[in-house]
Write a sequence for this structure.
């Protein structure tokens, strides 16, 4: 393209729009040269074939400056490079001659030539009008034109002025400065917009006067600034002020203000001022200074850092205490860089506790003395790693601040190596020490030599000792070594040695050496060791001379023992400390069926793995510790019993070296023992007396016991059942549920079957307990089958059920409308007749009053009035028109009867309404029916009350319930006084038993058919009772549970007494053995005496012995009689049939009689009687004498012969007290409590106590029967006093 | 043994029943035997020292198993351990108790007079 596009639009293009172009004088031709977008004005003596004074040339097609007038074109492409070179572009200054060609916008090529060309500066205010002057100069002188020019000039002047204002405004804003002036003569004041902005307010928002901005000046400087300004103004001198201002939004700004005086065209003085906001600049300066400081400082730090490689550094400003830790400092401490704020003690917590004091001390020195000691300490990193660090530091003076910068480096690795090395060294020493010790202890020694070089043999210390070489000669030649070996073994030794040297792995040999004249047997092991590419020959030696001899001795001893042990009939074997069997006698072989060869040397528990239980192992260990173990009646084999002895075998020095096991067969003894136990079986007879049917089955389901009650109830004799299988006796049982339960019992479960028709005799109802009896191995041996007869109770219950049904049927079947209303006039009960009349289900009417039932007001209101009347008066009311009946008039005759609670308050009313016509037709029937209802009701209630049974219905899905009246009474509540339901009664149930009931209810809900729960009740009136709930699910439209609640407190008490029977049984068993002994004793004497008498009759030898023997016999018979009397008394007492025949008698005389009797039998005894007045009592004389006799006999029995017995009779107002005192040894305190218990005998006395221990028990019962008291007090060593009282 | 042998045999009887002691005395005493009786065995060793018996008859019916302990005491004594002891009791487990105590023979109560005599003479002979 050679043409240049030139348009007006392009004239305003932004490229050169702002360029200010000027030339010195208008007529000098100027070349505008635009090369590479840079404009240069070149003046000089130009010769160009164009008419214009100005030529614009560009390298590519470019735009000339604004208002350019002249020739435009482009530089000839061929000349661009040459021109550029000539101008030394872009640094051309001149002067120089230039020539080049151009292509004008008209497409002509012109040559331009210039001499002494120079660059012209283009910064000039006139530059806005660069061509103006030039053009004007060219304009012809013309008046019209001149005028026009003047107008133009004015316009230009105005334009210039505004443009100037604009420029100033912009430059002020950019430069954050402002200007103002005050005309001194007129006082006219002007502030530029930006001054307002600097002061933080809107431009021209305040009136301008000299003091407009005085109030903004900072308070501290206001006076000084004002004075300085005033002074400058007065004296007409310029002022430069730097001060601070506070803007309305609270910012502090630094202001610099310069003023100077000028004169206006009219000569007036004008003070102009330039205000500059220096804040930003000052801040920048400050920041720059800080940055520089920081930079310099970091340089120093980095230098330090470089020196120490991988280290962390820190610094602390000593004045501000500002502390900084480098990232690496944190990393050394195992923390994320700058994760915690830096302060002097940031890392104090990571210092190892032992070093903390040291570090703290150093820190204190840093802050107080400005000294940084070089130190090493340990830190514990958050990951629990221990590191060793070294910290150094140095004090810098930085500017006018004191700074400590320091370095921390991790020396753990180095430290670790040190420690490891130390450990290894000490380990090595330890190992060497251990080696020497073990060598010495084991009598083992070693030697070593370099096999390749065949050098010297090195012996260990003990080796030297073993071979009898001097200790300091640690090396000897092979030849010398061979010399030590006994000549006989030498060749063998040599052979083995060379074999090893030639490559055999290792050799064990036994050889002898000659050492200081004695022959020692040595055991040696040769082997080659390869170590660091060298071959060493190593040998270990052990002196076995002693062991050799010992082995010989032991062998002999063992032979002897074996011989002995083999002939013992007990099982005898020995195990060593490792439980290896080392001796096994012939009986063992026979009993265990294991040959000696099979077991010896093997571990006991390997041979008998089934004995390997914890207890056995514990027992073994106990014996190995030196204890003896003796266990009786161990069942080692299936049928044999053994007494097991385990004895520790001790060596001479007392160390246990084995266990001697002796198993002594006691099978026969055991059998004997069992036979003896069978004698106790007579006690079983006692069981016959119980009211329950008791049967026992052995594990084969064979009857072993069948008591009398069972015989009676099942009409089957014992002989028929005992020894027979249960299915043999009752074949039908196999399909019975009971049989499954029985099987369960044999699995160890105790089964209780609730009352039901008896499995054997269907006529009976019984509750069955099946109790497993365990043998000593905890296996079920037999089953106790207890059937408790409940027939009577059950029949009673059935009867009640029938009554209940009758009553209900009656209520439902009657044509009368029977309703019950509560005090809120709401219906609580209605029979089916009511339903028939209302045609609404009764349930929907419950809880509503008559109005709510939508009955007509004329019927409902009088009805409710009548009800209210009954509630108020408590008297019966007759009422008509109870229910609306379509078609006919009043049909109903109702009686409203109050139902009162115990306090006489009306709780509910019962309304019985009857169709009046029906009534009249059969008035007699009504009366009868009413009577019957009443009667039945009474019967029902009576039955419930008598049986202490309440009945209830519960609908599990709606949780509604209905309780019978008696149920409420059982809980001590007024019948129907509260809403029936679980929630109502639960508070009366013993807290411990509530869970039981909830569980039972849940079970019923889940579908269990029937339940029976026994629980305790704290009645409302505070009485505690035991109830039993029996319930059953009745499936129907709505599943309901019907149940009975029975007060079984008394029955329960009977149950408890049955539990006591067990205790009683034991008591009886003890009593049986005692009785046997006590009865045998007099019989022994009696029998012997009689035998002697018999022999004496054959050969009489004198009168004296016969008399004595007879006397003895009589005494023994008396004793027996007394014992039997006691027994009889007790049995009478047990049955509660003791008869007291009361008669008046003198107590003193009765006492005397007893005393006389006792004194006559035992002449040495002294008994004194003391009485304050003669007393006559109404009592059974013989019984009271029996009591006295017991007391005195006891006193005689338990006190020494020389002590007298004292009897006191004390008369009181209402009773008489008889005391029997002795001065015997007394009774222990703990025994005193039991004195009056059955079978109790205080056995602490030295003298012999005879009797059954029944005397005091009987005495107590007798006195109790008389309504008196009985007791004893005693002090050990002082004597006892027994007393009783009788009412007078 | 350090016991002085004489022709007379000493029998020491322990029983808590004086009637039975009387009968023992009556049955066993004759020209060759002397019978000493004792109603308790609390200081049995003193009694032993006093009479140095050739036979002891011990009843079981002392409180707290006194008879059994007494026998064990005698049998543990180095001087008296060889003196035969006849154990008498009304207990049905007499055989076992006698074995446990270490008695040489036992006699169940009530006994036959001739049986007693035979046992006593057997035991005395055995000692000789």
């Amino acid at each position: 393209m050679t043409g240049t596009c030139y348009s007006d639009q392009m004239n305003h293009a932004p490229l050169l729009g702002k360029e200010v172009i000027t030339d010195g004088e208008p007529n000098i031709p100027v070349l505008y040269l635009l090369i590479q977008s840079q404009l240069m004005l070149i003046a000089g003596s130009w010769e160009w074939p164009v008419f214009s004074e100005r030529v614009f040339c560009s390298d590519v097609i470019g735009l000339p400056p604004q208002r350019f007038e002249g020739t435009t074109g482009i530089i000839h492409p061929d000349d661009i490079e040459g021109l550029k070179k000539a101008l030394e572009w872009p640094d051309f200054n001149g002067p120089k001659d230039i020539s080049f060609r151009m292509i004008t916008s008209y497409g002509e090529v012109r040559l331009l030539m210039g001499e002494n060309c120079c660059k012209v500066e283009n910064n000039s205010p006139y530059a806005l009008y660069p061509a103006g002057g030039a053009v004007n100069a060219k304009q012809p002188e013309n008046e019209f034109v001149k005028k026009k020019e003047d107008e133009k000039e004015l316009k230009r002047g105005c334009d210039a002025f505004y443009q100037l204002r604009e420029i100033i405004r912009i430059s002020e804003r950019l430069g954050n400065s402002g200007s103002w002036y005050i005309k001194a003569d007129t006082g006219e004041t002007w502030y530029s917009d930006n001054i307002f902005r600097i002061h933080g307010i809107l431009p021209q928002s305040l009136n301008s006067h000299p003091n407009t901005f005085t109030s903004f000046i900072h308070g501290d400087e206001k006076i000084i600034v004002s004075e300085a300004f005033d002074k400058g103004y007065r004296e007409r001198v310029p002022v430069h002020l730097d001060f601070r201002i506070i803007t309305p939004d609270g910012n502090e700004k630094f202001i610099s203000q310069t003023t100077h005086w000028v004169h206006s065209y009219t000569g007036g003085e004008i003070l102009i001022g330039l205000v500059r906001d220096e804040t930003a600049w000052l801040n920048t300066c400050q920041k720059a200074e800080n940055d520089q400081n920081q930079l310099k400082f970091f340089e120093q730090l980095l230098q330090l850092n470089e020196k120490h490689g991988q280290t962390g550094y820190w610094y602390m400003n000593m004045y501000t205490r500002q502390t900084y830790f480098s990232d690496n400092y944190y990393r050394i401490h195992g923390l994320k860089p700058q994760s915690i704020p830096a302060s002097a003690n940031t890392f104090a917590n990571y210092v190892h506790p032992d070093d903390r004091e040291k570090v703290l001390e150093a820190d204190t020195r840093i802050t107080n003395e400005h000294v940084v000691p070089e130190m090493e300490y340990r830190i514990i990193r958050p990951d629990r790693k221990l590191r060793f660090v070294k910290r150094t530091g140095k004090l810098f003076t930085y500017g006018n601040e004191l700074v400590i910068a320091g370095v921390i480096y991790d020396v753990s690795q180095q430290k670790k190596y040190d420690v490891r090395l130390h450990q290894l060294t000490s380990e090595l020493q330890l190992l060497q020490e251990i080696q020497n010790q073990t060598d010495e202890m084991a009598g083992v020694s070693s030697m070593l030599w370099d096999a390749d070089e065949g050098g010297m043999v090195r012996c260990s210390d003990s080796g030297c000792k073993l071979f009898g070489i001097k200790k300091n000669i640690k090396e000897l030649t092979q030849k010398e070594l061979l010399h030590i070996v006994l000549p006989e073994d030498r060749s063998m030794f040599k052979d083995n040695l060379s074999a090893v040297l030639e490559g055999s792995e290792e050799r064990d040999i036994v050889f002898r050496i000659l050492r200081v004249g004695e022959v020692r047997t040595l055991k040696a092991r040769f082997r080659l060791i390869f170590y660091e590419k060298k071959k060493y020959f190593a040998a270990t030696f052990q002196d076995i001379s002693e062991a050799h001899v010992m082995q010989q001795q032991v062998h002999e001893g063992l032979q002897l023992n074996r011989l002995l042990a083999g002939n013992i009939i007990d099982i005898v074997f020995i195990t060593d400390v490792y439980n290896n069997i080392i001796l096994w006698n012939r009986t063992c072989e026979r009993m265990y069926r294991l040959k000696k060869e099979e077991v010896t040397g093997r571990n006991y528990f390997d041979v008998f793995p089934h004995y390997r239980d914890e207890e056995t192992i514990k027992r073994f260990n106990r014996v190995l510790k030196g204890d003896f173990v003796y266990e009786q009646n161990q069942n080692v084999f299936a049928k044999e019993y053994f007494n097991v002895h385990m004895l520790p075998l001790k060596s001479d020095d007392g160390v246990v070296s084995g266990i001697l096991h002796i198993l002594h067969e006691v099978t026969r003894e055991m059998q004997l023992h069992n036979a003896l136990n069978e004698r106790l079986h007579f006690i079983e007879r006692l069981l016959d007396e119980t009211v329950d049917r008791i049967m026992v089955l052995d594990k084969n389901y064979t009857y072993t016991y069948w008591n009398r009650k069972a015989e009676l109830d099942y009409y089957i004799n014992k002989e028929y059942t005992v020894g027979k299988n249960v299915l043999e006796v009752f074949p039908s049982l196999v399909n019975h549920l009971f049989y499954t339960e029985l099987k369960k019992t044999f699995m160890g479960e105790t089964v209780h079957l609730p009352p039901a028709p008896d499995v054997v005799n269907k006529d009976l109802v019984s509750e069955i307990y099946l109790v497993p009896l365990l043998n000593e191995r905890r296996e079920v041996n037999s089953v106790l089958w207890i059937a408790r007869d409940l027939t009577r109770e059950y029949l009673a219950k059935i009867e009640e059920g029938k009554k209940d049904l009758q009553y209900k049927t009656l209520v439902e079947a009657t044509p009368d409308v029977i309703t019950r209303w509560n005090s809120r006039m709401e219906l609580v009960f209605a029979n089916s007749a009511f339903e028939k009349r209302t045609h609404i289900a009764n349930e929907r009417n419950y809880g509503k009053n008559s109005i709510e039932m939508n009955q007509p007001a004329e019927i409902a209101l009088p009805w409710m009035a009548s009800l209210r009347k009954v509630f108020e008066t408590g008297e019966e009311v007759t009422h008509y028109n109870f229910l609306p009946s379509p078609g006919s008039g009043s049909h109903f005759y109702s009686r409203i009867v109050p139902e009162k609670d115990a306090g006489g308050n009306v709780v509910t009313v019962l309304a019985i309404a009857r169709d009046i016509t029906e009534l009249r037709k059969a008035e007699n029937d009504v009366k009868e029916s009413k009577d019957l209802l009443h009667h039945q009701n009474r019967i029902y209630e009576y039955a419930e009350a008598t049986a202490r049974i309440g009945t209830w219905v519960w609908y599990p899905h709606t949780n509604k319930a209905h309780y019978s009246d008696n149920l409420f009474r059982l809980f001590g509540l007024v019948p129907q006084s509260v809403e029936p339901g679980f929630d109502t009664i639960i508070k009366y149930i013993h807290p411990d038993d509530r869970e039981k009931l909830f569980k039972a209810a849940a079970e019923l809900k889940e579908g269990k058919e029937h339940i029976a729960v026994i629980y305790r009740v704290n009645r409302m009136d505070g009485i505690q009772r035991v109830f039993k709930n029996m319930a059953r699910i009745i499936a129907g439209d709505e599943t309901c549970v019907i149940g009975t609640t029975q007060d079984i407190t008394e029955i329960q008490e009977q149950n408890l007494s049955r539990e006591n029977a067990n205790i009683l049984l034991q008591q009886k068993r003890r009593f049986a053995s005692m009785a046997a002994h006590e009865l045998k004793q007099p019989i022994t004497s009696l029998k012997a005496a009689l035998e002697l008498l018999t022999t004496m009759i054959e050969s009489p030898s004198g009168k004296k012995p016969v008399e004595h023997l007879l006397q003895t016999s009589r005494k023994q018979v008396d004793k027996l009689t007394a014992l039997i009397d006691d027994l009889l008394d007790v049995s009478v007492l047990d049955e509660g049939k003791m008869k007291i025949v009361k008669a008046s008698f003198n107590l003193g005389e009765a006492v005397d009689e007893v005393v006389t009797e006792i004194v006559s039998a035992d002449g040495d005894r002294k008994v004194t009687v003391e009485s304050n007045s003669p007393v006559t009592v109404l009592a059974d004389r013989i019984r009271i004498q029996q009591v006295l006799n017991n007391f005195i006999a006891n006193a005689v029995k338990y006190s020494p012969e020389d002590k007298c017995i004292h009897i006191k009779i004390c008369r009181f107002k209402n009773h008489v007290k008889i005391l029997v005192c002795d001065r015997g040894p007394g009774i222990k305190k703990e025994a005193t409590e039991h004195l009056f218990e059955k079978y109790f005998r205080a056995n602490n006395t030295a003298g012999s106590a005879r009797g059954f221990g029944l005397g005091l028990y009987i005495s107590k019962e007798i006195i109790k029967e008389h309504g008196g008291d009985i007791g004893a007090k005693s002090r050990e060593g002082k004597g006892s006093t027994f007393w009783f009282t009788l009412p007078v | 043994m350090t016991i002085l042998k004489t022709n007379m045999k000493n029998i020491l009887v322990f029983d808590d029943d004086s009637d039975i002691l009387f009968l023992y005395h009556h049955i066993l005493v004759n020209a060759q035997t002397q019978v000493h009786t004792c109603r308790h065995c609390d200081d049995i060793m003193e009694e032993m020292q006093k009479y140095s018996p050739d036979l002891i008859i011990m009843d079981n019916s002392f409180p707290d198993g006194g008879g059994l302990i007494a026998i064990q005491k005698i049998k543990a004594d180095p001087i008296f351990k060889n003196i035969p002891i006849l154990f008498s009791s009304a207990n049905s487990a007499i055989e076992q108790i006698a074995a446990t105590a270490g008695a040489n023979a036992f006699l169940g109560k009530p006994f036959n007079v001739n049986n007693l005599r035979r046992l006593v003479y057997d035991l005395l002979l055995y000692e000789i």
User: Anything to note?
Assistant: Residues 41 and 120 of chain A are 5 Å apart (CA to CA). The mean pLDDT of chain A is 76.
